[in-house]
Amino acid sequence: MYGTRPNPGRLWKENMDALKLLLAFAPWIAFWIISAGHSMASLQIGICVAAALVIIMGVTRLHRGLILWAGVVFFACALVTVVLFKNLWVIQHLGILASGTLFVAALASIVIGQPFTESYARDHVPRELWDSPPFIRSCYTVTGVWGMIFLANTLVNVAKPYSPALGEWFFRGVEFCILVSGVIFTTVYSNHMKKKRAPRVAHGPQG
Questions:
Q1: Distances (CA, A) of 163 to 103, 178, 195
Q2: Can you say how many angstroms the Cα of residue 185 is from the centroid of all Cα atoms in its chain?
Q3: Contact call for residues 21 and 60 (beta carbons, < 8 A)
Q4: Residues 32-87: pLDDT tens digits?
Q5: Which of 15, 69, 176, 191 is the most exposed place for a label (fewest CB within 10 A)?
Q6: Cα 39 from chain centre
Q7: What residues does each domain of the chain span?
Q8: SS3 state at 207
Q9: Which pTM does this prediction carry?
Q10: Following DSSP, what letter does each residue of 42-69 receive, concatenated?
Q11: CA distance to 65, 68, 92, 101, 189, per residue, from 117 (Å)
Q12: Around Cβ 26, how many Cβ atoms within 10 Å?
Protein backbone atom coordinates (compact mmCIF):
# COMPACT_ATOMS: atom_id res chain seq x y z
CA MET A 1 0.00 0.00 0.00
CA TYR A 2 2.73 2.41 0.97
CA GLY A 3 5.37 1.05 -1.41
CA THR A 4 9.01 0.47 -0.62
CA ARG A 5 10.73 3.12 1.42
CA PRO A 6 13.93 4.43 -0.18
CA ASN A 7 17.14 3.09 1.26
CA PRO A 8 19.17 6.10 2.48
CA GLY A 9 22.43 4.18 2.09
CA ARG A 10 21.66 3.26 -1.51
CA LEU A 11 20.55 6.82 -2.37
CA TRP A 12 23.76 8.18 -0.85
CA LYS A 13 25.84 5.72 -2.88
CA GLU A 14 24.02 6.64 -6.09
CA ASN A 15 24.66 10.34 -5.43
CA MET A 16 28.32 9.59 -4.72
CA ASP A 17 28.58 7.73 -8.04
CA ALA A 18 27.34 10.86 -9.80
CA LEU A 19 29.88 12.99 -7.90
CA LYS A 20 32.67 10.59 -8.86
CA LEU A 21 31.65 10.93 -12.48
CA LEU A 22 31.82 14.73 -12.23
CA LEU A 23 35.18 14.39 -10.48
CA ALA A 24 36.54 12.65 -13.58
CA PHE A 25 36.02 15.94 -15.45
CA ALA A 26 37.27 18.16 -12.61
CA PRO A 27 40.14 19.72 -14.62
CA TRP A 28 37.81 20.64 -17.47
CA ILE A 29 35.12 21.97 -15.11
CA ALA A 30 37.70 24.02 -13.19
CA PHE A 31 39.01 25.46 -16.45
CA TRP A 32 35.45 26.20 -17.60
CA ILE A 33 34.54 28.04 -14.37
CA ILE A 34 37.77 29.98 -13.79
CA SER A 35 38.17 31.09 -17.40
CA ALA A 36 34.68 32.63 -17.33
CA GLY A 37 36.23 35.87 -16.02
CA HIS A 38 36.62 37.17 -19.61
CA SER A 39 40.22 38.26 -19.05
CA MET A 40 43.61 36.94 -20.10
CA ALA A 41 44.56 36.53 -16.44
CA SER A 42 41.52 34.36 -15.61
CA LEU A 43 42.11 32.29 -18.76
CA GLN A 44 45.75 31.67 -17.87
CA ILE A 45 44.90 30.85 -14.24
CA GLY A 46 42.19 28.45 -15.42
CA ILE A 47 44.65 26.63 -17.67
CA CYS A 48 47.31 26.39 -14.95
CA VAL A 49 44.83 25.09 -12.35
CA ALA A 50 43.41 22.56 -14.80
CA ALA A 51 46.88 21.36 -15.80
CA ALA A 52 47.80 20.87 -12.13
CA LEU A 53 44.57 18.92 -11.54
CA VAL A 54 45.29 16.67 -14.52
CA ILE A 55 48.68 15.77 -13.03
CA ILE A 56 47.30 15.22 -9.53
CA MET A 57 44.36 13.13 -10.73
CA GLY A 58 46.57 11.10 -13.04
CA VAL A 59 48.99 10.27 -10.23
CA THR A 60 46.16 9.36 -7.83
CA ARG A 61 44.33 7.32 -10.51
CA LEU A 62 41.22 9.48 -10.24
CA HIS A 63 41.68 10.25 -13.92
CA ARG A 64 42.53 7.45 -16.38
CA GLY A 65 42.48 6.19 -19.93
CA LEU A 66 42.15 8.35 -23.01
CA ILE A 67 40.31 11.09 -21.11
CA LEU A 68 43.41 11.48 -18.93
CA TRP A 69 45.68 11.69 -21.98
CA ALA A 70 43.27 14.07 -23.70
CA GLY A 71 43.64 16.38 -20.69
CA VAL A 72 47.42 16.01 -20.69
CA VAL A 73 47.69 16.89 -24.39
CA PHE A 74 45.14 19.72 -24.36
CA PHE A 75 46.33 21.54 -21.25
CA ALA A 76 50.02 21.04 -22.11
CA CYS A 77 49.36 22.66 -25.49
CA ALA A 78 47.28 25.39 -23.83
CA LEU A 79 50.11 26.14 -21.40
CA VAL A 80 52.50 26.67 -24.31
CA THR A 81 50.22 28.45 -26.80
CA VAL A 82 48.09 30.53 -24.40
CA VAL A 83 50.03 31.03 -21.16
CA LEU A 84 53.49 31.39 -22.72
CA PHE A 85 52.89 32.74 -26.23
CA LYS A 86 49.35 34.19 -25.94
CA ASN A 87 48.41 32.90 -29.39
CA LEU A 88 45.23 34.78 -30.38
CA TRP A 89 43.90 32.11 -32.75
CA VAL A 90 44.08 29.44 -30.04
CA ILE A 91 42.53 31.80 -27.48
CA GLN A 92 39.62 32.58 -29.82
CA HIS A 93 38.97 28.90 -30.54
CA LEU A 94 39.78 27.47 -27.10
CA GLY A 95 36.18 26.43 -26.37
CA ILE A 96 35.95 24.51 -29.63
CA LEU A 97 39.35 22.91 -29.08
CA ALA A 98 38.48 21.86 -25.51
CA SER A 99 35.14 20.20 -26.32
CA GLY A 100 36.53 18.87 -29.60
CA THR A 101 39.43 17.21 -27.81
CA LEU A 102 37.04 15.42 -25.45
CA PHE A 103 34.86 14.33 -28.39
CA VAL A 104 37.84 12.93 -30.30
CA ALA A 105 39.07 11.12 -27.15
CA ALA A 106 35.65 9.54 -26.55
CA LEU A 107 35.35 8.51 -30.21
CA ALA A 108 38.90 7.14 -30.28
CA SER A 109 38.28 5.07 -27.14
CA ILE A 110 35.32 3.41 -28.90
CA VAL A 111 37.27 2.82 -32.12
CA ILE A 112 40.17 1.10 -30.33
CA GLY A 113 37.77 -1.03 -28.29
CA GLN A 114 38.45 0.58 -24.92
CA PRO A 115 35.48 2.88 -24.10
CA PHE A 116 36.78 5.40 -21.59
CA THR A 117 33.87 4.87 -19.16
CA GLU A 118 34.82 1.21 -18.67
CA SER A 119 37.67 1.87 -16.23
CA TYR A 120 35.33 3.98 -14.07
CA ALA A 121 32.44 1.50 -14.31
CA ARG A 122 34.65 -1.32 -13.04
CA ASP A 123 34.83 0.44 -9.67
CA HIS A 124 31.14 -0.39 -9.13
CA VAL A 125 30.84 -3.81 -10.82
CA PRO A 126 31.97 -7.23 -9.50
CA ARG A 127 35.17 -8.41 -11.21
CA GLU A 128 33.46 -11.56 -12.54
CA LEU A 129 31.20 -9.39 -14.71
CA TRP A 130 33.93 -7.27 -16.31
CA ASP A 131 34.08 -9.47 -19.42
CA SER A 132 30.34 -10.06 -19.71
CA PRO A 133 28.67 -8.81 -22.94
CA PRO A 134 26.00 -6.73 -21.08
CA PHE A 135 28.67 -4.87 -19.08
CA ILE A 136 30.84 -4.19 -22.13
CA ARG A 137 27.80 -3.13 -24.15
CA SER A 138 26.71 -0.72 -21.42
CA CYS A 139 30.19 0.87 -21.40
CA TYR A 140 29.99 1.45 -25.14
CA THR A 141 26.51 2.94 -24.72
CA VAL A 142 27.53 5.39 -21.98
CA THR A 143 30.73 6.34 -23.81
CA GLY A 144 28.74 6.93 -27.00
CA VAL A 145 26.33 9.22 -25.17
CA TRP A 146 29.21 11.20 -23.67
CA GLY A 147 30.73 11.46 -27.12
CA MET A 148 27.51 13.05 -28.34
CA ILE A 149 27.54 15.40 -25.35
CA PHE A 150 31.08 16.53 -26.17
CA LEU A 151 30.07 16.97 -29.81
CA ALA A 152 27.04 19.03 -28.78
CA ASN A 153 29.22 21.31 -26.64
CA THR A 154 31.66 21.64 -29.54
CA LEU A 155 28.80 22.80 -31.78
CA VAL A 156 27.66 25.26 -29.09
CA ASN A 157 31.13 26.81 -29.15
CA VAL A 158 31.09 26.89 -32.95
CA ALA A 159 27.79 28.82 -32.80
CA LYS A 160 29.05 31.46 -30.33
CA PRO A 161 30.63 33.86 -32.85
CA TYR A 162 27.46 33.85 -34.94
CA SER A 163 25.15 34.86 -32.09
CA PRO A 164 27.09 37.37 -29.95
CA ALA A 165 23.87 39.08 -28.86
CA LEU A 166 22.98 36.06 -26.72
CA GLY A 167 25.99 36.67 -24.54
CA GLU A 168 28.75 34.43 -23.19
CA TRP A 169 26.76 33.33 -20.15
CA PHE A 170 23.91 32.05 -22.31
CA PHE A 171 26.27 29.67 -24.08
CA ARG A 172 27.94 28.73 -20.79
CA GLY A 173 24.52 27.85 -19.41
CA VAL A 174 23.72 25.70 -22.43
CA GLU A 175 27.04 23.86 -22.08
CA PHE A 176 26.41 23.30 -18.38
CA CYS A 177 22.91 21.94 -19.01
CA ILE A 178 24.26 19.54 -21.63
CA LEU A 179 26.93 18.33 -19.20
CA VAL A 180 24.39 17.84 -16.40
CA SER A 181 22.14 15.88 -18.76
CA GLY A 182 25.07 13.51 -19.32
CA VAL A 183 25.53 13.00 -15.59
CA ILE A 184 21.80 12.38 -15.12
CA PHE A 185 21.70 9.89 -18.00
CA THR A 186 24.77 8.02 -16.72
CA THR A 187 23.42 7.85 -13.17
CA VAL A 188 19.96 6.63 -14.24
CA TYR A 189 21.34 4.17 -16.79
CA SER A 190 23.94 2.79 -14.36
CA ASN A 191 21.32 2.27 -11.65
CA HIS A 192 19.07 0.53 -14.19
CA MET A 193 21.90 -1.82 -15.20
CA LYS A 194 22.71 -2.53 -11.53
CA LYS A 195 19.12 -3.64 -10.94
CA LYS A 196 19.29 -5.90 -13.99
CA ARG A 197 22.56 -7.42 -12.77
CA ALA A 198 21.35 -7.99 -9.21
CA PRO A 199 19.54 -11.34 -9.87
CA ARG A 200 22.53 -12.67 -11.81
CA VAL A 201 24.94 -11.72 -9.05
CA ALA A 202 22.68 -13.21 -6.39
CA HIS A 203 22.36 -16.56 -8.18
CA GLY A 204 25.84 -16.66 -9.61
CA PRO A 205 26.85 -17.44 -13.21
CA GLN A 206 24.31 -19.54 -15.03
CA GLY A 207 26.80 -21.13 -17.37
A1: 23, 19, 44
A2: 12
A3: no
A4: 989 886 789 999 999 999 999 999 998 888 778 888 999 999 999 999 999 999 99
A5: 15
A6: 26
A7: 15-191
A8: coil
A9: 0.86
A10: HHHHHHHHHHHHHHHHHHTTSS-HHHHH
A11: 9, 12, 30, 16, 13
A12: 18
